[in-house]
């Protein structure tokens, strides 16, 4: 049985990505190094995300580039208007204006500094 799941995003924007996920989604830094930032949110199960500098030698040769074409879905306990305000408060004006509704999921989609699309849905 799966005990945990921790996506890893290879990025050329380590600091900017850390700020995006901590400010907008409430992640806390669990560990931080020169080339890696671990993020977590407590709960049952806990939620984890790791950001890795795409040029670090720990990344396999064929993968030495920032992430491309990824979409993740996060469930939020705040409504659409509150989330839009948070994007405006913690993101750039460009990111706030790019926040849009996904016709399939009904969620709001925002893009992280790496181009990762994040579909933010609320429980039904």
CATH-level-2 architecture: Roll
Query: Can you write the helix and strand succession as a string?
Result: EHEEEEHHEEE
Query: Based on CA inertia axes, which overall geometry fits?
Result: globular
Find the count of extended strands (DSSP E, 2+ residues).
8
The percent range for strand residues is 25-35%
Organism: Nonomuraea pusilla
Pfam family, one: Glyoxalase
Domain Glyoxalase/fosfomycin resistance/dioxygenase: 8-119
Protein name: Glyoxalase/fosfomycin resistance/dioxygenase domain-containing protein
Structure description:
- By secondary structure, this protein is an alpha/beta fold.
- It has one domain (about 10-55, about 65-120): 2,3-Dihydroxybiphenyl 1,2-Dioxygenase, domain 1, CATH 3.10.180.10.
- The chain is about 25% helix and about 30% strand.
- The protein is built from 3 helices and 8 strands; from the N terminus they run βαββββααβββ.
- A 4-stranded mixed β-sheet has the order 1-4-3-2, covered by helices on one side.
- Strand 2 (about 30) and strand 3 (about 35-40) form a beta hairpin.
- It starts with 7 loop residues before the first strand and ends with a strand.
- The model has no long low-confidence stretch (mean pLDDT about 85).
